[in-house]
Design a protein that fits this description.
Helix content is 80%, strand content 0%. The chain has 242 residues and is mainly α. The protein is flat and about 70 Å long.
């Protein structure tokens, strides 16, 4: 098979995998669409629970009450369809990988997905109640806290992304060690710098209260330590293979 034929075959395969992913995402979105408003209400619950009695959220744009729940339904559909989408990606790249690479990639993809979901769950159940409680309590007297639903969604997505990425630290540590870019001993040596960096990251990506900063910094540090433990275990497995 010529290079041109191989390239065309790859394009056809890529189109097939993309089509399968889009169809799966569309089907899940269609199923969730009737409950878009309920999904937004669930997403907004941590904020609504901390508002003063009689407090509510507002919509400042004409189309916001329709499009914001739609965005939430689409985001939920993507998260539900994500395992299947990752499977399609895997089907596309797997033929070009060696057997030892396949053994490493599959666990990393699964672990990365689970950790991202764990990061989102941690933000929703543990961080949001603290953050929104601080925000509503810090409001000056005479100021009614009524958050715009679109701005609330942007804030929540940013926090989900920050914690989801933060929870990828063990995967990043294992990859660095496995690829030989850094040793476990070096990771242990820079532990103090990582702890300081974790609190800096917490100060940047969370509201200006000590509790929420601590709630991002501590998991970041603990996940770093977990990554070192897993890297040691993976390193022993690699040594046995050799």
């Amino acid at each position: 098979m010529s290079n041109r034929e191989t390239f065309i075959a790859h394009l056809i395969e890529l189109r097939t995998r993309l089509l399968h992913s889009v169809v799966a995402l569309s089907l899940v979105f269609i199923c969730l669409f009737p409950w878009a408003s309920d999904l937004y209400a669930l997403l907004a619950q941590p904020m609504l629970a901390k508002l003063p009695k009689g407090g509510q959220m507002i919509a400042t744009d004409v189309t916001t009450p329709f499009f914001v729940p739609l965005k939430v339904a689409l985001m939920s559909a993507f998260l539900i369809a994500l395992p299947y989408i990752l499977y399609q990606i895997w089907r596309f790249v797997a033929p070009g990988l060696y057997s030892h690479e396949k053994r490493l990639v599959v666990p990393l993809i699964v672990a990365s997905t689970i950790l991202f979901f764990c990061g989102m769950a941690f933000a929703y159940f543990a961080v949001f109640p603290v953050v929104f409680g601080f925000i509503t309590a810090a409001a000056p007297q005479g100021v009614a806290v009524m958050t715009d639903i679109d701005k609330y969604l942007s804030f929540v997505l940013g926090m989900f992304l920050a914690f989801g990425v933060t929870f990828q630290v063990p995967v990043a540590v294992v990859l660095l060690v496995r690829m030989g870019l850094v040793s476990v001993e070096k990771l242990r040596e820079i532990r103090s710098y990582v702890i300081v960096g974790a609190f800096v990251v917490g100060a940047i990506f969370t509201p200006p209260d000590v509790v929420s900063q601590f709630m991002l910094a501590m998991p970041l540090w603990l996940l770093y330590e977990a990554g070192i433990v897993v890297a040691v275990w993976v390193g022993k497995g690699k040594a046995k293979e050799a």
